[in-house]
Structures are given as structure tokens and as C-alpha cells.
Design brief:
alpha/beta, Rossmann fold, six-stranded mixed β-sheet, two-stranded parallel ribbon, globular
């Protein structure tokens, strides 16, 4: 994929985006009691938002859909360990991911959390055209592949050490 077909996010810009999204949540008048990340892409953003909002109750769900650049499974799937559903019953949960691309992973996890009794809102750095679930809070919209600072480099190997 050519460089001009990619959206690039740097660490400094990521820090500003997490603060901007936190302000958007506050301005909406809805305050989460729990921040839940969709791992792995949502982990860093969830941490940044939880710190910015002063929310100490955090968790993660493990879901897989994309297996590489432009390649994905037929359907998103949940991976262990699973979220303690009893802990979110009746709570305001902010669900965080890096991007709502097809939106299918986000929609699957929203359904899971709502079935467990949570009042769920969603936040993503990016949303793409054609997503089946537009996040409640989104920083930018793009139709390009996104290079995130935490995943732009190849996996570290022993040869790198």
C-alpha cells in the first residue's frame, strides 16, 4: 500500500486526540463509571481517556477481526480472558477502540455489554465510511488505512534484541 494511501498518527497527536475525546465525553453530560478497551487497538486510548476523566475502574475485552492489512476473519470473535459481566451490570460503560472500520467488532461488543446490563457509549479515534456502528464520540473520519504509533513497526524478534 502506497504511503499516500495511509493515515498516519503520531504519539503527540495521539495524546492530544485522547484529551479531545475526553472533553467530548464530558461535554455530552454522560460520565462513565467504567472504561472498557477492545484489545488490542483500544488499550492505549482507553488508558489515556480513563486518566483524563479520572476513571479508575478499567477493563478490556479481547476480540479479533483483522488478521493483517486488509485481511480479516469472516466474523469478529471473542478471545479469552472474558470480561466479568457481573461487574458491569447497571453501570455506565465507555467502550473504547482505535477505529470503527466495518464496525462489526464494536457492534458485537456493544451487544455483549448491553446484554450484561451496561449502559454503553462508544469512542474511537477514527471512524470509516460504511461502518455499521458510528461511535458516539469520534476524533476523525477517514477512508484510508491507519498507521497507529503502537502498531506501525514490525513485531520485535530476538534478532532485534
Amino acid at each position: 500500500m502506497a504511503d499516500d494511501e495511509r493515515e498516519r498518527l503520531g504519539w503527540d497527536e495521539f495524546g492530544q486526540a485522547s484529551r479531545d475525546l475526553s472533553r467530548d465525553v464530558l461535554r455530552s453530560g454522560w460520565m462513565p463509571e467504567i472504561v472498557v478497551a477492545i484489545a488490542r487497538g483500544g488499550l492505549l486510548l482507553a488508558g489515556g481517556i480513563a486518566y483524563a476523566l479520572g476513571v479508575k475502574s478499567c477493563g478490556a475485552v479481547n476480540a479479533e477481526f483483522y488478521t493483517g492489512v486488509g485481511t480479516r476473519l469472516p466474523e469478529p470473535v471473542m478471545l479469552p480472558p472474558l470480561l466479568d459481566e457481573a461487574s458491569i451490570d447497571g453501570k455506565r460503560v465507555l467502550l473504547v477502540d482505535d477505529v470503527s472500520d466495518s464496525g462489526r467488532t464494536l457492534a458485537m461488543v456493544v451487544q455483549l455489554l448491553e446484554a450484561a446490563g451496561a449502559d454503553v457509549r462508544t469512542v474511537c479515534l477514527y471512524s470509516k465510511p460504511g461502518t455499521v456502528l458510528e461511535p458516539d464520540y469520534v476524533w476523525r473520519r477517514t477512508d484510508r488505512w491507519i498507521d497507529f504509533p503502537w502498531s506501525a513497526q514490525p513485531v520485535v524478534t530476538l534478532e532485534d534484541a
